Amino acid sequence: MTHIQEHFRAKRVYEVTSSGPGKGLRLNDRIVELGEKEFGWYEKVTAWLPSVRGLADLSRELEMDESKVPKFIEALEKSGLLYRTADMPATMTGLEFHAKFNAVLKSWLSEAFAHPFWERMMSGKGSARLFTGWLIELYHYTKNANRHMPLSCAHAHEKPIKQLRAKHYAEEWNHYHYFMKSLKALGFAEPDIASSVPLPMTLALSNFMRQAAREDILAYSICSAVLEGTTTDRQTYNPYYEKAGELYGIPKDAIAPIYQHLDLDVQYQHSDLFHEIMEQVPVLSAARASKVLDYGHQLVEHVWLWTDNIEKYYQVESNPMPRRPFDAALD
Amino acid sequence: MSTATSEGSTDLPVLRRGATVARTNGHVVIRHLRDEVTLDGAAAQLFSKMEPQLDGKSSISSIAERLSEKPTRLRSLIEELGKAGVVAFATTADDGALTTGMEFYALHREHCAYWLGDVYTHPLWEKIVTGRASRAQVIGFAFEKYHYIEAAFEHMGIAAANATPEMMPHLARHFIEEYTHGDIYRKGLRSLFPDDFVLRSQPLPSTRALVNYLIESAQRSSFAYYAGNELLQMTENTGDTRAGAAVDEFYDAMRKHYPYTDKLIDSFIAHTKADQKLGHADAFLLMCESVPPLTRREVNDALNVAKNMAEHLVLFMDGIDTFYTRFPTVPRLPCNPLSE
Asked: Is domain A3-87 given the CATH code 3.90.930.70 in the classification?
């Protein structure tokens, strides 16, 4: 590993857009404009940084004299596209960590909901079946909160955090009834929904929450905060339901319980819970802060792939809806 | 064999739920798993008439009455379809019948071979063989295989620690034989990436989903866990010559289109050989020989886990195919306060 490879890493780029003859790279806090040639160089540098190839290889790929490469790397760092590993703070307080999370949440949510499914649904290219399938999976996800929320209480070691997690569970545990109401308004029988099985990625989401609960209560709490971040106010979610209702003939009775559920989340101020938890944490090491943040980002990726799984399954008309468990006698 | 399809209870016929019915030129073709029945003439007409009634809720006599047909005529066709495997007979209550481990083994193999169909026909294979897969997808494929194999530490460890007395020797042996296999893949990846990056890299959510599903099953039921794990083993360590040749062709094509994966492919092959040498292909058979007879509930539980595992395996493939297209960063390093 070269000196450069040891000391520099790439920042996450949330979106690359065409910008005149070059590209616009959207970071969390800025957009960096690069010309076409510089963008090509940037791509080569980011592929080379985590590799075992030497500086001579990079110099050849960039068609740049070896002596000039470090300057180019520094220019990338100044633009914000790279960072130095040495700049990592050794520790941070719980509230400093929360501020970092708050600063990045909007970018994360844009990543989680960047799946083409949403554009498809909003542009009229979706269907009532896709809307319903998504609702069935939300029912399962919400019901499965009973698989991870109490587990997080069991694995929280400090009393104030235990208390906060338990209160959250007490307020949330039976919210799946709202989705059952919606599904009944769409014509489904309660036993058929209650006995149905979720898609693998829906199950994966609650299994990942269980993993986080066992690993670190802050890792669990950041995942929960990412999910709650989608329901801070009505403006976030109303347009989707309004539009879907209008485009796909979803009855108002099926949408009303979803609003009731979301309003309740806002009323409980669940989006503030992570702040209350982090207030209880005097200090986090760099390693713990990184681990917790990484759990939050993994949850973002789970949401993206969850959406993908829902779209792929429910767009096939012949796939059963709801999904029945396998029965050796009948299947 | 006596799960819920008790031989004598032919009063509530049901067209098996996964069956497909196709009609051409007066013929009716019914397919279920590998079973296929073709009906023509009067039998085809009678089947078409009664098909909507084959829901497991109506007795043969009440169907006959509704259709104004003779019950004996209906019963005769239904029983033939039952023997052919496309019609089952629902029972109104669990009759307490038990399934032996070896009966389960046969049932499991039949269903798993069918469920694995979607894995073998996944579009990612063709993309790699024809050279249409991107660098991120190809290297991502190697990373995700590594993460899955390395996770033996987690799910196999948990399975052994929670094993029933009958399953413990098998699960202990399996863990001890497998826990080093992640290093075989790691060696391949080290030809392209520093060791520390390989070790700290993140699996895709879809790979984590597969591992977590194994973990959750392992905590809950030793037998159901291994019924699911066996489905995965069926894709790995075949000693079958024809299947082996197909795998060789896949690797040859991969080497041709992606020369930089040479060492990775060497590691894939080394792992397959290591598995074959261990004789894992027989492990599940030995387990089935040693478990006590299973209740209907246990049979369904274990088969549900196996079916879910097949779905998770498709998800594993989907993740590599879709996610690395949309987010082509590889290796996937964990984030930190400066990376975001």
From this structure: yes
